[in-house]
Protein 1
Amino acid sequence: MIMENKRPTWTSKYTFILAAIGSAVGLGNIWRFPYVMGKNGGAVFLLTFVFLVLTICFIPLLAELLFGKITKKECIGAFESVNPKFKVFGAMNPLNAVFIPSFYCVIGGWIVYYIFNSFTYLNKGDCGKYFTDFIQNPIAPCVCTVIFLFICTFFVVKGIKKGIEFANKIMMPLFTVILIFLVCTAISLPGATAGIEYMFKPDFSKFNTDMVFDALGQAFFTLSCGTGALLTYGSYVKEDDNIAKSAYTIVFSNIAFSLLAGLMIFPAVFSFNLEPDSGAGLAFVTLPKVFAQLPCGEFVSFAFFILLFCASVTSAVSMIEVPCATMVERYKMTRVKAGTILFFVISFFAVLATLSFGILGDFKLFNKTFFDFLDFTTSNVLLPLNSLILCIIAGWFLKIKGQTFIKNKILYNLFDIGLKYAVPIVLICLFIERLR
Ligand code: PFF
């Protein structure tokens, strides 16, 4: 009981929304979204993505926030309070939230390296070779990954108000200002309209089921569904906050930031006749080729990597908070102790994942490098699986019905049907497809 009184809460509903947007808007929007969209034919992917976010994905997002708000517990306790047998499902969340940052921080480390080298690397010739040489190096990427993780863990250890809120209050406005500056720069380049057309003029011949599943996976990842991050953030919400309204704000902001990320990248890529479908290297190889040709390219490159840094820190912080909250509340550790343990555990996996681009490249698990294995099992298996379990438990066992969270009756009924039937069915299809 005493512990419950000591549970932290957000300063206001605005800081909660800011932190939830900070969690949702991350590398998934700025780094992953443009290259998955590039791979899947542009506008038709965008339309599918927006449709899925507003229909299917909105439901688990709201359910996860409500789960936290109603139970007011960290993940294991939240599931346990519905039924002690569900404890094991709750435990899958903090576990997943240890593995996701283990590969997420690798990209964070690359970003740190590019920030430090923004003013010099463009003069070093071939951007592709520069990037490959860097990621294959056994020391520099590991050091940068650990620095990135240290910064994120630091904010988590400082707590909800002084750490997580503080990080979001500084980084989200900075992120937004830089993003708008870069979008303006990109769309004013000669030939930029080809990129805008690519984003907004759908070619329906590119529509296929693989693309739909890619859009669904992207939507889950970018909304941070299935790690318990939203559940944990929701559990710090004060009683009187209208969580359904906050959920709309989070979803619409996430779509807006994904669109802005596309508007920052595609016009620039098309303007210089580069390929939009170069995959994960889009941000680290293709865009630097653009920066190299811009006046003050070093400055633009620096701004871009600071933008990526802000987006990735606020997301990684939300992941690390999930196991941290469990260790503090359930196992009565101090934040410093929990943060230190998490720092070392995640560093261990993150360094292995970093090295899988170099000296551990031949070490394979199920035919995948360690990085790809973590990425695949967490994003494609554990995220949808956790969301599926959460929707079933929230829909069938947690009595959301008695609550007056969604005032509009029609909307409430849609939410209820979606939670109990539609989302589980879609998730099972996604799951089977991904494991094929
Ligand atoms: N939504 C984040 C992104 O788009 O980069 C990724 C993410 C954050 C996934 C937090 C899961 C999570 F718990």
Protein 2
Amino acid sequence: MTLTIRLPRITILGTGGTIAGSATSQTQTTGYQPGAISIQSLIDAVPAIAQIATVKGEQVANFRSTEVTSPILLDLCRRARAANESDDCDGVVITHGTDTLEETAFFLSLTVPWKKPIVFVGAMRPATAISADGPINLLQAVTLAASPTALGRGPLVVLNDRISSGFYITKSSANALDTFKAPEQGHLGYFDNSQPKFFYSSASPIGLHYFDIKDTIDLPQVDIVYGYQGLNPHIITEYVRAGAKGLILATMGNGGWTIAGMEVVRQVIEGGVIVVHSHRSQDGAVSSSVDISISSGLLSPQKSRIMLQLALSSGYTLEQTKSIFEI
Ligand code: ASP
């Protein structure tokens, strides 16, 4: 009697980025076109994937990740949720440009129930380069999505032989292959001969908040204002005039903003805009506030922005919003 072993079924959602990038020569590693190669061609370029899983590619988009918008995030969320619910899918891989991968991974951490593995993967060298990192990263991402060890950990990120938390990672270098880091929280695991190995058993990050956005069709505009010596205090009013319903301040240190700037911040808050104080430093937290603004805690400006968009679109009060940031 022959026993047929069914391979795990993995859905790969392609969105572009450097992993799908194409240059005019093998030695060109800057100035190439990201999002030039189809998801099917990326899968076909790694025949070893067929030994690990039965994969199905879906092209969601094919561009540089700077072009990801709220409707695209919502579309990805719908597809990841559908895969989560489907009996024909055991895990999801999302290929993504590294520039804004941390934003999409954070968004899905907050909006997709974690039933099956969701693994983000990118690359720092285009697919046409000598020693392109995309093919091995894709193989490892599929291996991880097919592995029961990935269950209950939320969206994960694979790059450069490392496994990281989609909630915590950030792109730490504009160029280096080991760009994804969570300096305070660390990596969750690594690959040994392309097999995933974890340092810890599964756990949820403190501060993870779930938003049910099944019926959401767009997200409100929230903008980020960068803090620096001599900042123009009135730039904030311009953001509000241009439609911002919320603002994130990338403050200096632990909540620092100029005296003249704070005056304008107070005025926009009184006008109904929600303001979150985040930090321009890579690490550390902004301490809980005692006034009407909100502190981001550990969240970076780009992650605070997503959290605030979700809170606003869910109709949270100021107090509810404060409570999900200031844990
Ligand atoms: N340079 C980017 C990348 O590493 C391009 C992008 O984010 O789409 O994928």
